[in-house]
Each structure stands twice: as structure tokens, then as C-alpha cells.
Design brief:
alpha+beta; globular; 4 strands
Length: 95
């Protein structure tokens, strides 16, 4: 995490207003290359398998988003990391 991008209040800094994670999907064959991607954009997990993007999960709470990070991206946050979003504009409040 970068201090500037996590604390800047600039209107043009999308990095404090969005949660964005992307995982590219590699084909099964040795020469297949990238065949798609999975994205977490704020509270939505989306998947694109070669041209068409679809929403596969909608997270309404931080607990759901943390679980989605683990399930779709194999990212396991520590308690301290999970608490880092509390009080920030990107926090999912489940309202």
C-alpha cells in the first residue's frame, strides 16, 4: 500500500474511491496465454471469459468482500489488514 494513494483527498485520485483487484486467467495449454480475468470492483466480483463480462457475486458487507478475496483471488487478509478499510470511503457498510 502506498501512503499517498491511501491518504490523498484529491478529487482525481480514484485509488481512494475504488477497490480494484484483477486476476488474469491462464489457459490450460502450454501456449494458451491469458484467456480471461476475474475482477473485484468495489463490492462486485466479475468474470470475463473472452469478451463477455458477467457479475458472479455481489458483496454487501466487508465480511463478504473479505471472503470473496479469499475464494476468487486467494488473498487472505490478516485482521489488521481487514481493519484497514474501516472508516474509509470504500468501506462496505451493508446498508
Amino acid at each position: 500500500m502506498n501512503h499517498y494513494t491511501s491518504t490523498s483527498i484529491s478529487e482525481t485520485n480514484f485509488q481512494i474511491r475504488r477497490v480494484l483487484v484483477v486476476r488474469y486467467l491462464k489457459g490450460e495449454g502450454e501456449d494458451d496465454g491469458i484467456v480471461g480475468k476475474v475482477m473485484l470492483v468495489d463490492g462486485e466480483v466479475k468474470r470475463n471469459d473472452g469478451g463477455k463480462t458477467r457479475v458472479v457475486q455481489v458483496c454487501g458487507t466487508e465480511a463478504e468482500r473479505i471472503k470473496a478475496l479469499d475464494e476468487h483471488f486467494k488473498i487472505r487478509l490478516t485482521n489488521e489488514e481487514a481493519e484497514g478499510v474501516r472508516g474509509r470511503i470504500v468501506e462496505l457498510l451493508g446498508v
